[in-house]
Every structure is written in C-alpha cells, then in structure tokens.
C-alpha cells in the first residue's frame, strides 16, 4: 500500500487511541463482548452503523457486505452473535442510492461482483424502481435470516437508511 495511505490510516488510529474510550476498550478486551444487536448492512462508506445508531465499542455486531447480501458466511456470523453472544435482534439495513442494487438493476457484472449482483437480482425480481428494489433486497435478506436461524427465537427486522438525511426507516413487520 502507498506510504501516504498508511500514514493517513496511522494518523487516524492515533486519534482513535486517544479518544477517551480507553476504559471501554480495556473492559471489553478483558471481559468479552455483549453486543445488543446484529446489524447487517452494505459496505458503502456512507453507511456507518456505529455512527448511525450512536453505538460504541462492544455494542453492535456488524456484518458488512456490498448490497447487504446474506450468504452462508454472513449467516454464520449472525448465528454466532445470536447463539453465543446473546444478541436479541438482527437488523438488515439497506440504504438509499445503493450501488450494488443499481448494478443489479443495470444488469451486467463480471467476476466476483457478479456473485453479489446475481444474488440481488434474484432478491428484487421484476422490481425496477431503485428504492423499491432496495426494500425488496432488504426484505429478501430478512426472509433469508428468518428461515436460516429460526425466526421465532431471533427478532429480525428490515430498515432503510437515508444517506442524505441520516434517518433510519423501519420496514413493517411481517416483511
Ligand atoms: Zn450499498
């Protein structure tokens, strides 16, 4: 990696280490994590779950994959959090202006990206409206998690994050 990039990352880490969270870091390092929720969201740099939900170290168990696609590895992560860490709820969080959903709507992708786009295309079906497609993709993710992880035992809900306003809109239950 370019030296300039490493310097930029190191400078950020230096600020982070002096941000006043030292006690919380030590506590969770020594006593383990007890996150209260799982958030499955997109890798998009504008979608930062800990910031969006004003959460700190040890609060959220986050699974991030472009387009919040939920495959077996993601399910394994969610299962670990709900079965072993005591997370009581799972949020599948889509967002406005999702590039992965737009790529699925546009149609063509190759290589590793095609793996994501194909999964999203299957989730959105015939939907052509970007926001409705985003919601359909979230609903499909909610269904996937419920089917895989015994939906009765784990609360799963879908939501859409608005990248312009910062607001989270919860999708209705029974999606
Ligand atoms: Zn996205």
Structural features, described:
Helix 5 packs across helix 6 and helix 6 (111-124) packs across helix 7. This protein has seven helices and five strands. The relative contact order is 0.14. The longest helix is centred in the C-terminal third of the chain and has 19 residues, at 130-148. It has helices at 3-17, 22-31, 49-52, 72-84, 99-106, 111-124, 130-148; strands at residues 37-41, 60-64, 89-95, 155-161, 168-170. With 175 residues, it is an alpha/beta fold. Helix 3 (49-52) links the parallel strand 1 and strand 2. It is globular, with a radius of gyration of 17 Å. The chain has two domains: 1-30; 33-170, Carbonic anhydrase (Beta-carbonic Anhydrase, Chain A, 3-Layer(aba) Sandwich). The termini are far apart. It has a five-stranded mixed beta sheet with strand order 2-1-3-4-5.
CATH topology of the largest domain: Beta-carbonic Anhydrase, Chain A
User: What is the quaternary state of this protein?
Assistant: single chain
Number of strands: 5
Give me the side-by-side strand order of the main sheet.
2-1-3-4-5
SSE-based structural type: alpha/beta
Q: Can you give me a brief rundown of this structure?
A:
This protein is α/β, with parallel strands linked by helices and 175 residues long. Helices cover 47% and strands 15% of the residues.
Which descriptors apply to this entry?
175 residues; alpha/beta; Beta-carbonic Anhydrase, Chain A; 5-stranded mixed sheet; 5 strands; globular
Can you lay out the helices and strands and say which pair or pack?
Layout: H1 3-17, H2 22-31, E1 37-41, H3 49-52, E2 60-64, H4 72-84, E3 89-95, H5 99-106, H6 111-124, H7 130-148, E4 155-161, E5 168-170
Parallel strand pairs: 1-2, 1-3, 3-4
Antiparallel strand pairs: 4-5
Helix pairs in contact: 5-6, 6-7
The structure holds zinc ion.
